[in-house]
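Input structure tokens:
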């Protein structure tokens, strides 16, 4: 490895302009075990969520045996190729605590905030990704990245509060432009020059600080809470901007891709799968380039409108209107979209597992939670919510097992995720959802 270091590039000329391509993480760039950078700095730890709408059929989805080598039911066959990386969590409940079951809202908000929402659009507390990004996201350009494969920026569950929602990118080209367009600083570039526009934006934001105290004194309690949510997001933005004023550390697995072609977006299942695949490729490089360490991918929103090409009848409509086949025992047309969703989830896991990083893979240094807002969508059931985890979280997790919750609150999952991501928290949730029991089976 003589003559090479972490700033070595493949260089050339294209169209009269000089170009350079970053190199992968060669052994010489790492410690002797390949588990950290040669400087001693650990490889980045990442967290993500992956959401699909309208749940599953519990008797066809839930494994029967616990532990490793669990048997895959019919609706989990799609993950067979990545089963060693995927832990299935079944039988964890969303407790409503006397609140109404708000269809396609209560289950997901309870999973992500630890509290049953009193109203359909209430966000009782910051979502899990926000809590975790406060720990992991301050070192990267983007606190988190949100993506929606079916074409609506509103399809995001990442929320700090009622009025602070992280909108999703809905097209691969828009996602590419956001990550690798203006403002992207190649961590392997030989020279670094701060963007003067960042300097200007930072000074404008700093100027707002002087007015905060005066404004707060004029607001009522509810508006002060709203202002606090806003200022918290603003402070995060200030930290992200400050990062752009310093040269990023080199990351040799970072090789910015070419921009994807502009394409159509929407809930057509073929189009959604194509957009999901392109977004996955861009996301993996964003993680490798340390542009973010937290992400949220919505494959289909709650009340999923995924539909077949040429059809206007969506997944959600089918869960309510399609009759259960007396011989099959389930709704075949609605269930098609469950299988297709599992195929998309498996494709993300496979892509992360195939992306080399150090002596392992990107998935080894990540933990991703896949979840839905309901179990049996026909009745909007929030008992036994389907959840999966993928990745080793930098060696903190034992993957590839099945853990049955037996009716325990779903907050056990959220508490576990926070602890694995390094948060100092020993209990989480409210009322009957409050718990101090992590899922010990998955801790390495």
């Amino acid at each position: 490895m003589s003559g090479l270091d972490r700033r070595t590039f493949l260089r050339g000329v294209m169209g009269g302009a000089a170009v350079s391509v970053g190199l992968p993480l060669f052994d010489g760039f790492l410690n002797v075990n390949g588990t950290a950078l040669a400087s001693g700095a650990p490889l980045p730890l990442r967290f993500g969520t992956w959401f699909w709408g309208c749940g599953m059929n519990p008797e066809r989805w839930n494994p029967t045996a616990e532990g490793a080598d669990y048997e895959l039911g019919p609706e989990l066959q799609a993950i067979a190729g990545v089963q060693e990386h995927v832990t299935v969590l079944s039988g964890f409940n969303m407790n409503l605590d006397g609140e109404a079951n708000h269809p396609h809202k209560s289950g997901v908000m309870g999973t992500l905030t630890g509290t049953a929402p009193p109203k359909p659009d209430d966000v009782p507390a910051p979502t899990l990704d926000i809590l975790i990004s406060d720990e992991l996201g301050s070192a990267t350009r983007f606190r988190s990245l949100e993506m929606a494969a079916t074409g609506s920026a509103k399809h995001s569950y990442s929320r700090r509060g009622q009025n602070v929602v992280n909108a999703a990118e809905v097209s691969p080209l828009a996602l590419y432009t956001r990550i690798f367009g203006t403002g992207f600083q190649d961590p392997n570039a030989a020279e670094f020059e701060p963007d003067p526009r960042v300097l200007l934006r930072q000074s404008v934001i700093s100027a707002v600080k002087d007015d905060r105290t005066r404004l707060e004194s004029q607001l009522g309690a509810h508006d002060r809470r709203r202002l606090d949510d806003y200022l918290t997001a603003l402070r995060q933005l200030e930290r992200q901007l400050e990062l752009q004023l310093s040269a990023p550390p080199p990351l040799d697995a970072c090789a910015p891709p070419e921009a994807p072609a502009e394409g159509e977006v929407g809930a057509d299942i073929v189009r959604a799968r194509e957009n999901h695949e392109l977004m996955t490729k861009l996301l993996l490089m964003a993680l490798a380039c340390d542009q973010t360490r937290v992400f949220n991918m919505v494959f289909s929103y709650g009340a999923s409108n995924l539909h077949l090409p040429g059809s206007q009848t969506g997944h959600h409509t089918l869960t309510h209107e399609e009759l259960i086949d007396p011989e099959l025992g389930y709704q075949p047309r609605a269930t098609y979209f469950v299988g297709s969703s599992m195929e998309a989830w498996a494709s993300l896991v496979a892509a992360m597992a195939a992306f080399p990083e150090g002596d392992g893979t990107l998935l080894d240094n990540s933990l991703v939670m896949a979840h839905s807002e309901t179990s049996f969508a026909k009745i909007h059931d929030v008992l036994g919510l389907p959840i999966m985890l993928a990745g080793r979280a930098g060696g903190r997790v034992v993957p590839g097992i099945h853990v049955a919750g037996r009716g325990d609150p779903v907050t056990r999952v959220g508490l576990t995720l926070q602890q694995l991501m390094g948060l100092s928290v020993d209990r989480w949730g409210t009322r009957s959802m409050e718990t101090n029991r992590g899922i010990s089976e998955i801790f390495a």
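Confidence is low (pLDDT under 50) at residues 1-29. Residues 193-246 form one domain.
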